[in-house]
Write a structure and sequence with these properties.
This protein is α/β, with parallel strands linked by helices. Helices cover 46% and strands 12% of the residues. Helix 1 packs parallel to helix 2, helix 1 crosses helix 9 and helix 4 packs parallel to helix 6. InterPro entries: NAD(P)-bd_dom_sf, Sc_DH/Rdtase_CS, SDR_fam.
């Protein structure tokens, strides 16, 4: 029997990259999946098509995680389409790097609203539907350990994600809802190609700093998410799992 048979998952930011890989991996283990997206409807529908072609169940839902009504709509789509909700993966996130002299108020609000407020709104909307054994998985970053220069905003948002994960793990434990974080290291995605990181000296340095000697793939992170979503991780809550090839 597949490890997530009968479960329903909601993955935000799932039209591409790590989110798409997580959505497909959860579906492969039997979960019905809501593929959440912000703007990339066609890409999200492609992920749904790939899941259904492999025999899984999925639907795509668009919205802005920084708006409470959209967060509620994401969750309601899972209830309307599949009748329940068991797994929430808070993957939506953005990143940009700049020295402190160039940080603006708009930069702050953009990153913190998406990476932190969005996670809180999605979790608030979801918890009323989650029961015993449910799993919330927050996608953080190994940047909270590395703390490189020019990352003050992004590092700040992911440090907040780590702290929120720990708080919610304690807050929701009486309801037997588990909350954990995955902290990926450098992972090659559409975003790293778009921003020019892939193929750059930065990528070479990141790989050189990774003991296992390569960059991560979205599937590397997705496999960890499957474990956290399943009963195999029944005794894990409040944890930060560094899926980084040893880069710390």
């Amino acid at each position: 029997m597949k490890s997530l048979e009968g479960k329903v998952a909601l993955v935000t930011g799932a039209s591409k990259g790590i989110g798409a890989a997580i959505a497909k991996a959860l579906a492969a283990q039997g979960a019905a999946v809501v593929v959440g997206y912000a703007k990339s409807q066609s890409a999200a529908e492609t992920v749904v098509a790939q899941i259904t072609a492999a025999g899984g169940r999925a639907t795509a839902t668009g919205g802005d995680v920084t708006k409470a009504e959209d967060a509620e709509a994401f969750v309601q789509s899972a209830i309307d389409e599949f009748g329940r909700l068991d797994i929430v993966v808070n993957n939506s996130g953005i990143y940009a790097f700049s020295p402190i002299e160039e940080v603006t108020e708009d930069d702050f609000h953009l990153q913190f609203n998406t990476n932190v407020l969005g996670l809180l709104l999605m979790t608030r909307a979801a918890v009323k539907h989650l029961g015993e054994g449910a799993s919330i998985i927050n996608i953080s970053s190994s940047i909270t350990s590395l703390l490189p220069a020019d990352s003050v905003l992004y590092s700040g948002t992911k440090a907040a994600v780590d702290a929120i994960t720990g708080v919610l793990a304690k807050e929701l434990a009486p309801r037997k809802i588990r909350v954990n974080a995955i902290n990926p290291g450098y992972t090659e995605t559409e975003g790293t190609h778009r921003t020019g990181i892939t193929g750059s000296d930065m990528e070479k340095n990141l790989i050189a700093s990774t003991p296992l000697g390569r960059g991560g793939k979205p599937e590397d992170i997705a496999d960890v998410a499957v474990i956290l979503a399943s009963d195999a991780a029944r005794w894990l809550t409040g944890e930060r799992l560094f899926a980084s090839g040893g880069m710390r």
